Amino acid sequence: MNRVFSGTILALALLILLPFPARPGNPISPLGDEKNLIDQISPAPEADGLFELGRFRLQHAAALYKTWLDNKRDEDFSKALVYAHSASELLVDSDEAWLLLGMLRAELKTEPSALAAATDALVRAVESNPANGRAQLVLAQVLMEQGRYWSAIEQFKILIEGSRAMRTGTVLSQLTFCYIADKRIQAGLDYIHSLINTKPQEGTGNQWLEWQLINTAILMKAKGDRKDAIGYLNLMFFYGGKEDANHQRSDGRIKQVKYLLSLWEKGE
Description:
The protein is 69% helix and 0% strand. With 268 residues, it is an all-alpha fold.
């Protein structure tokens, strides 16, 4: 049985064992501290007790998710999903609880309903805390995976405009992909051109500028302007003129540039 199917079935079964808010002796509540809390808040729960229970379940869900990322065991994933679901109900205003639930649901990539549910959870996370950049980034990526490219574009733009830390090659490359997939190539070129004066994260040197050059070239190639695309890639070697050329660089960006040039110069 594959992970997606068995994980979903087990998660549904475990949800039956983990009603809201909790019950004493719950077989899927292995934490001693949690059992003590359940004993204290049942059958008449109070806000403080529910908050503490929610925090425990959020922490336990995060730990199980981390374990699953290491071992890929269905049981760990399903339990993490159950605990995250419960935490989001107990901590309705917690952006971290909704973020974790969204990340877990997004792992079920082959199930459209799971991705839609992931989007809902991530929107709740962003609404709870608009400053949560990680939630905004995961939301944009999930929208991209769903093929909702224009919505993803808008979310990536919010990230870039709102935080220097999000002015990275990963974010800009994913944004470029969305512009191409949505057939809005000129809009992508116009947007990247508008970024020329945006300040990068401190300590990153020319990386932000270089990623703008690379992604501009990729958009130009997608538009059919191969010659201009090659010209933009070559700008990576000539910031201040030929005397400043440095073909000995070996960082990741230059490796990518050399690979693209080797293809494009052959007409591929």
